[in-house]
Amino acid sequence: MNPRDYDLDSFWMPFTANRQFKQTPRMLVAARDMHFTAEDGRAILDGTSGLWCSNAGHCRPKITAAIQKQAAELDYAPGFQMGHPGPFKVAQRLKGTLPGDLDYTFFTNSGSESVDTALKIALAYHRARGEGTRRWLIGRERGYHGAGFGGISVGGIPANRKTFGSLLPTVDHLGHTHNLEHNSFSRGQPAWGAQLADELENRIVVLHDASNIAAVIVEPMAGSAGVLVPPKGYLERLRAICDKHGILLIFDEVITGFGRLGAPFATNLFGVVPDIICLAKGLTNATVPMGAVVVRKGIYESMMSAAPENTIELFHGYTYSGHPLAAAAALASLELFEEEKLYDRSRELAPYFENAVHSLRELPHVIDVRNIGMVAGIELEAAPGRPMTRAFEAFLRCFEKGVLIRTTGDIIALSPPLIISKQQIDELVGTLGDALRELGRKT
Ligand SMILES: Cc1ncc(COP(=O)(O)O)c(C=O)c1O
Q1: pLDDT at site 379
Q2: What residues pair up with 30 in beta bridges, in sequence order?
Q3: 8 A C-beta contact, residue 126 and residue 134
Q4: Is 146 in the pocket of ligand 1 (CB under 6 A)?
Q5: For residue range 11-56, what is the model confidence (pLDDT) as tens digits?
Q6: Is any atom of ligand 1 closer than 6 Å to the C-beta of 224?
Q7: In this predicted structure, what is the pLDDT of residue 442?
Q8: Residue 253: CB within 6 Å of ligand 1?
Q9: DSSP 264
Q10: Which of 74, 115, 154, 287 has a CA between 20 and 30 Å from the CA of residue 400?
Q11: 131 touches 211 (CB < 8 A)
C-alpha cells in the first residue's frame, strides 16, 4: 500500500459516519468490470453497482473512450439559448426506449435535480393549463427522492427530513407498502397490498380535494429505504386514481431505470406508464453525473402553447444541463447496454439471483428476504437496544472479506452490476451469509 499523500480531515463526506470512517477508512482507488480495488490492493466485488448506478460494471472502455474524445473536442457549451448535438441525441434515444408518449427530455445533473425538476414541471404544467390551484405534491412514507428540498419534502425517510425545518408547504404522503406480516419472504411482487393505493382517493383526495393536487411521486420500487417491491396491482390502482382526478403520476426511476429490475425500466416491467419519469445514475453508467426528466407529449405541448411566441417556456435549468461529457457518456452507455443486451441479461439472471438470496432466509436474525430483478433486500431483526447496527456490522465484515454490500437501517440491499456472473452471485451471497453467521455467533 502506498502511503497517502493527503489527509482525511478536510473532506466532509456525504451520508457517511465521518468520524467512524476517518478512524477506519475504506478507500477505493480503482475499478474495473465487477471489482473495485481497495487502497491496500484487495479486489472488492461490487455487490451494489456503486450506489445502484454502475449497471454495466466499471471503467468500460467504450464509455471511457467516448468521454475522453468528447473532452478533447467540445468540453463545454452553454445550454441556455444555445445547443450542441449531445443532449438532442440522448433525448431522441430515450424517446425510442421509453413506452407510450414519454417523448420529451429535460436534462439535469443528478437524481435529486431530476426530482425537483419533475415537481416544478408538474406545478408549471397545471398552471399553464389554468389549473394553478393544483399545488399539492403527494409523496410516500419511506420514499427516497434525493437530497434537494423538493426531494426531501416528498420523501418519507424521517432522518433525511427532521433536521431541515418546514420544507415545502403543500406536501402530503401516502403510507408505505411494506408489510412483513402479509408479505415476508416474497419473491417478486408481493400478493398483498394493492388496496393500499386507495388511500390516495379515500384520504388524500378527500382531504385536499383533487382540484388542489398536482402530482403523486413514487419510486415504482422503493430502493434506498430498503427494497420495497410494489404489491401486485398497486401501481395500476395509483395510475387509475390519478387519471380519474387529473393528477399527474411521477415515477422516480433513478434506481429502477436502465435494466435494474430485469426490464429497461420499471414502467415496462409493471406495464404502468407515468406522466413524468425521473432518471439519473445508470443513464451514464455513473461515469459522469447526469439526470433526466422525461415527460409525456401533452405536458410538453401544453407548456409550449401556453407561453407567448419566442419566449422561454420554462424558467428552469442548470449550467450543466445536457453537459457534453455527460451526453457522450450517456450515448456510449445506452449503446453498450444495447450491444450487450444488458436488459435481457438482467431478466435472465434474475431467477438465479432470487434463489441465491433466498438461501439466506434461515440465517441468524434474518426476518425477510425480498427481491425483484437484480435487486434484493435482506431485513434483519434489530439488535435489542441497538437498532441499525447489525446490518452495518455485516457491511463492515463483508468489506473485510472483499465484498461491497449496502445497508439502510437494519436492511441489507444488494444490486450488483448486471454483468455479474453466476459464480460471482454465489460469492456475493456466500460472503454475506458468512458475515451473518458470524454475527449470529456474536449476538
Ligand atoms: C429513487 C431515487 N431518487 C433520487 C435519488 C437521488 O439521486 P442523486 O443522489 O443522484 O441526487 C436517488 C439516489 O439514490 C434515488 O434512489
Answers
A1: 98
A2: 37
A3: yes
A4: yes
A5: 999 999 999 999 999 999 999 999 999 999 999 999 999 999 999 9
A6: yes
A7: 77
A8: no
A9: S
A10: 287
A11: yes
Give backbone dihedrals phi and psi of 234, rounded to 5 degrees, phi first. -65, -50
Q: Within 103-219, where are the H helices?
A: 111-128, 149-154, 158-161, 180-183, 199, 206-208
Nearest CA to ligand 1 atom 12: 146
Q: Are 357 and 378 in contact (CB under 8 A)?
A: yes
CB 111 near ligand 1, within 6 Å: yes
- The alpha carbon of 111 and the centre of ligand 1 are apart by a number of angstroms equal to 4
**Beta-carbon contacts of residue 351 (< 8 Å; ≥ 6 apart):** none
Cβ proximity of 432 and 403 under 8 Å = yes
Mean pLDDT of 250-256: 98
Interstrand relation of 43-46 and 403-404 (parallel, antiparallel or unpaired): parallel
Distance 1 CA to ligand 1 centre (A): 33
SS3 136: strand
In the structure grid, which three cell numbers stand for residue 18, read together? 465521518
Q: Whole-prediction pTM value?
A: 0.98
- Could you tell me which residues are beta bridge partners of residue 372? 375
Residue bearing cell 432522518 = 159
Helix and strand tally (H, E) in the chain?
A: 17, 15
Looking at the predicted structure, is the pLDDT value of residue 2 above 90?
A: no
Give the mutation target among 145, 154, 293 for probing the ligand 1 site: most ligand atoms within 8 A of CB: 145
What cell numbers appear for 25 in the block? 477508512
In eight-state DSSP terms, residue 211 is G
pLDDT digits (tens, 9 = 90+) for 79-127: 999 999 999 999 999 999 999 999 999 999 999 999 999 999 999 999 9
Tell me the residue type at 370. R
Question: Is 112 near ligand 1, meaning CB less than 6 Å away?
Answer: yes
Average pLDDT over residues 337-365: 98
406 in ligand 1 pocket by Cβ < 6 Å? no
